[in-house]
Description:
By secondary structure, this protein is α+β, with helices and mostly antiparallel strands. The chain contains 10 helices and 6 strands, in the order H-H-H-H-E-E-E-H-H-H-H-H-E-E-H-E.
Amino acid sequence: xxxxxxxxxxxxxxxxxxxxxxxxxxxxxxxxxxxxxxxxxxxxxxxxxxxxxxxxxxxxxxxxxxxxxxxxxxxxxxxxxxxxxxxxxxxxxxxxxxxxxxxxxxxxxxxxxxxxxxxxxxxxxxxxxxxxxxxxxxxxxxxxxxxxxxxxxxxxxxxxxxxxxxxxxxxxxxxxxxxxxxxxxxxxxxxxxxxxxxxxxxxxxxxxxxxxxxxxxxxxxxxxxxxxxxxxxxx
Length: 235
């Protein structure tokens, strides 16, 4: 069988491109062969496809691609995925710098992570992760953005992204609720309350942040997706 994929997600920039491909293939084959797999099973199947890009199975990105919304992978054995509906006024602004793709980027991004974490940093990140989940459960976009302050992974990877600090500062000045590195980077993603701030204004500020550091960038805004679905049956 030969499968051709058309997608608008830039590969190797931290936006879950490989997960989108894996999710689409698992979903498509499920329909084509009438396998009757539920979404949790599709997540398990799609996670195997992540071996090709990340080197191991993981379900965080494929879960988001299959379910849509805000995803928490609570457990792998057994697999348990929790899905929360994002607030309707939550938008994301994204900037992708025009930098060379690092070979084995995900592996490189993981290699720079600390081997041990101080207890206070662990407490900080767990607390912020819990607060983010509460933000999604209650529809509080501001709380979601404030909870994006990571003191473990992001500081370790910041040096891999030219213009990181400039982009972060400009996004917050433009009204973003929070901003962080998207996946393993180099893209950066900001949470915006569209009822208060124009997401495109934040995206433009992020693009200008990269340009101030001498790096061109593509920037845009969008809403969280609803997960994998059939566009046109019989096409």
